[in-house]
Amino acid sequence: MTATTPKATSATASFCEGIQYFGAAIPNFDTYGKTPAIGKGSVAIADPTDASAVYQTLLYADALRYLTLQITGSKASGHPGGFASQAEAYAALVMLGYKNIITEVGHHAPGFYSAMFLDRSLEDMGIFTVQQLRDRFREKHGLLGHLSGYIPGILAPAGPLGQGEHFAMAAALLHKDKLFPFTVGDGGLGEPYIMSGMAHFHTAYPGATNFLPVLVWNGYSQEHHSMVSLKTNAEMLAYWQGNGFEEVVLIDAKEFDDKNQSGDYVDSTAFSFEQRLAFTKAVLEGIDKAARSALGGKLTAFIIKQLKGAGVHARGAKSHNLYAKDTLDSPHIIDALKTRALPQEAWQLVRTNCERAGGGPAAKTVVTEFELPLPELGQLPLEEYAIGDEHPKVSTTSMGRLVAHVGQTDPGYLVTNADGNEASGIANINQALKIIHPTTDDLYNQAPGGQVYEPLSEDACAGLAAGLALMGSRTLWCSYESFAINGLPIWQTVTQAMAELRRPTPSTITLFTAGALEQGRNGWTHQRPEIEAYFAAMMRNGNVFPLFPPDANSIQVCYEWGLNTKNKGVVITASKSPLPIHTTFEQTRQALQDGAVVLHEVEGSKKVVFAVIGDMTLMPVFEAAAFLETEGIGVKIVSVVNPRRLYRQSDVAWDTCSEPDGGFLDDAKFEALFGGDALIGVTGGAAGMLEPIMLRSNCKRDTFAWKRGETTASAGELMAFNGLTAEALTKRAIELVH
Q1: Using 50, 70 and 90 to split pLDDT, how confident is the model at 8?
Q2: Per-residue pLDDT for 7 more than 70?
Q3: Under a CB-based contact definition with an 8 Å cutoff, are residues 430 and 386 in contact?
Q4: CA-CA distance, 97 to 356, in Å (whole number)?
């Protein structure tokens, strides 16, 4: 096929402006390309074996390759190779009417953007021409380097590996009549979590098979061969079958090669045109078979085996990334574009099919473009305890009672936990909602059809809970504070995506229990409150709210507040130990608005203010206050419930968020809460969580915070190891006011 530089003619469709090269006539176009294979009023091709459908699927695959290379070349940056190696599979899915496509591979972004352009989804963000597509690739308010929920028609963000499958499985649960294919690279397949995540999900939800992993088996990872590149076809099939997949469809480009390419992985774009069509037909039929199987109740996978970089500027890992030398003026980029160039009439044909597939542009049809209807929860059955109640209360148990109510009111509600709810003082959740398990056992509160998802993987727990929230459902991820770090990457991805979404969705809510101070006997392996530094950093994003209820009353109001928010990440951290009641409901409602609440205040010659994060950390503070008061020193104890409110507006990117929350405590109220002769911040976690207070305070100040873990017999002994004692607090307070 030869290519020419485009000439401006009235016949050129306006969307083609910016296409650098148009190709000469394609063989048999008059026979197979004159009429769109997806007829007017149809949502898919009628028959995957139809010669015109096969022919036009191949044209679509080449259009995707061309655009992927041209937009990455326009910035000499981005990742064309991985997507190019599976272009036929993506094209087949769309031609068959499936547009709810997710990816595990953020590096496939330029290919997905090309698809969204071709079906006109990107017109919703003002991208009408190829030139505009090029201009806005990898630019602010444009098409960022990895997929985002900000882009019309894109179902989910994609960046770190191991996340796309959770989004696909979450969507499959919520929309059982639709197929959710997701592409996964063989570079990522070398890690075990992908298979284990799907295996646990399938055991818990054997009927939800309407997600379809599409393995892009191209032999290479980002910079080298993939770890599964030496597997034979039989071994790869056995691997998937051994992990519970009933139907595995594998299409290997090498079986169609008529150019005697060396190696196990070949480039189908180098075949004769006839063999390219034969390969495309096999992919189209294979995708159709796999899709029907997945929708029909079988756990199914589709595998396309083709050399990485097929049809673009380089092959193998060298095709993964473009560098400064890889511009649109570079001879090797020009040659690749000319080789893939399509004639003008082919571009219009591809555009028409893409517009019609799936019932219209993805931006108008895919499930994430609509707000998911949810049952009304009504009033939560809050139970308020009296301050000073002689019977200490377990905060987590009080919240668990509300969680049970939500789950019984909303059948779609899901709780996830890897380490066991009973160990966190929330056995009442399991009793009410049941652990999802194929074995029914009342002693362990487990049964099929439950609402508590318990894989022994924080990645899987966070993934499904956060994924469901992103897709529009209510969830709760519970974890021990010490282990939650393993699930945070996907939770962080989701909260960032929620900040960009064009629709409201329930906030993703977490409950982190069994903090370091409660885990003395378990030693430092269970003492990792450094996780709070993670959230302290995320607070500046604008939509992340770490909450620290000081008691069983406060946690109920914090959970109620979180349930009524949208597009936020709400992190509730609380102890599972029985603790005193310090606050009323109304005080916590005020603290959620102001950031903090005064628990205790006594006047004296000088005033020491203790800003306290957490519940157990209040114990040494109250003890220190009692001593200071005997010395005539005034003390104020302030419980910091919602530290994000204590930043200044300019500290936080709140106004860049969808569903923006611009509530911050003003200077006068901040001074009223924290003003004194000395300020001491106290936390059993990372000192970074105290930053909003220390940033604004103008008095003498200091912090007491977690340092490191140790094996101890009690929380008090562990606090002492970290310098969090009444004696140390008293000593420092006196030093500061004298």
Answers
A1: very low
A2: no
A3: no
A4: 9
Helix runs in 231-312, H state only: 233-242, 273-295
Residue of 253, 248, 308, 317 whose CA lies nearest to 280: 253
**Six token digits for residue 594:** 């102001």
Structure confidence by residue, pLDDT tens digits, 439-487 = 999 999 999 999 999 998 888 999 999 999 999 999 999 998 878 888 8
DSSP state of 156: S
Residue with tokens 């059948």: 411
Strand partners, 22: 4
Please enumerate in sequence order all residues whose Cβ is within 8 A of that of 13, keeping only pairs 6 or more positions apart, or say none: 344, 347, 348, 351
Per residue in 349-365, pLDDT (tens digit) is: 999 999 999 999 999 99
* pLDDT value of residue 192: 66
Joined together, the tokens standing for residue 129 give 């021409």
- pLDDT at position 4 is 58
Furthest C-alpha separation in the chain: 98
**What percentage of the chain reaches a pLDDT higher than 90?**
85
Please state, in angstroms and rounded to a whole number, the distance separating the CA atoms of residues 315 and 193: 28
Please, are residues 308 and 82 in contact by the beta-carbon 8 Å criterion?
Answer: yes
Contact status, residue 628 vs residue 635, Cβ threshold 8 Å: yes
3-class SS of residue 693 = helix
The span from the CA of 382 to the CA of 553, in Å, is 8
Measure the CA dihedral 331/334/336/342, to 10°: -160
CA distances from 550 to 8, 165, 513 (A): 69, 37, 13
* CA neighbor of 490 nearest in space, from 523, 468, 515: 468
pLDDT bin (cut points 50, 70, 90) of residue 193 is confident
The whole-angstrom separation of Cα 464 and Cα 477 is 9
Residue 46, judged by CB atoms within 10 A of its CB (0-12, 13-18, 19+), counts as: exposed
Cβ-contact 343, 22 below 8 angstroms:
yes
**Sign of the torsion angle spanned by Cα atoms 319, 323, 324, 327:** positive
Q: What is the pLDDT of residue 6?
A: 52
Packing angle, helices 51-75 and 273-295, rounded to 10 = 100
Q: How far apart are CA 609 and CA 636, in angstroms?
A: 5
Contact 319, 313 (CB under 8 A): yes
Question: What pLDDT does residue 480 have?
Answer: 85
CA distance 66 to 384: 64
For residues 137 and 110, give the distance between their C-alpha atoms in angstroms, rounded to a whole number.
8
Q: How far apart are CA 710 and CA 335, in angstroms?
A: 63
